[in-house]
């Protein structure tokens, strides 16, 4: 096999590897976005729970009436 054919074969191999890595990277980016969205939703849920808890606590606090 001459040198030119070896270089072409190596280029083909490297392009294939590059495509696989690009696809893997894109999947990782997508998962990262999904996780970021889930974390934001969980943060919102936590805020709602804390607010509900605070509202429930304040409604249970006895009111002292002064005459």
From TrEMBL:
<keyword id="KW-0175">Coiled coil</keyword>
<feature type="coiled-coil region">
    <location>
        <begin position="4"/>
        <end position="31"/>
    </location>
</feature>
<protein>
    <submittedName>
        <fullName>Uncharacterized protein</fullName>
    </submittedName>
</protein>
């Amino acid at each position: 096999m001459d040198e030119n054919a070896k270089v072409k074969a190596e280029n083909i191999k490297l392009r294939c590897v590059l495509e696989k890595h690009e696809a893997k990277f894109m999947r990782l980016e997508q998962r990262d976005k999904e996780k970021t969205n889930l974390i934001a939703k969980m943060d919102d849920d936590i805020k709602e729970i804390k607010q509900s808890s605070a509202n429930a606590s304040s409604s249970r606090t006895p009111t002292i009436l002064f005459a």
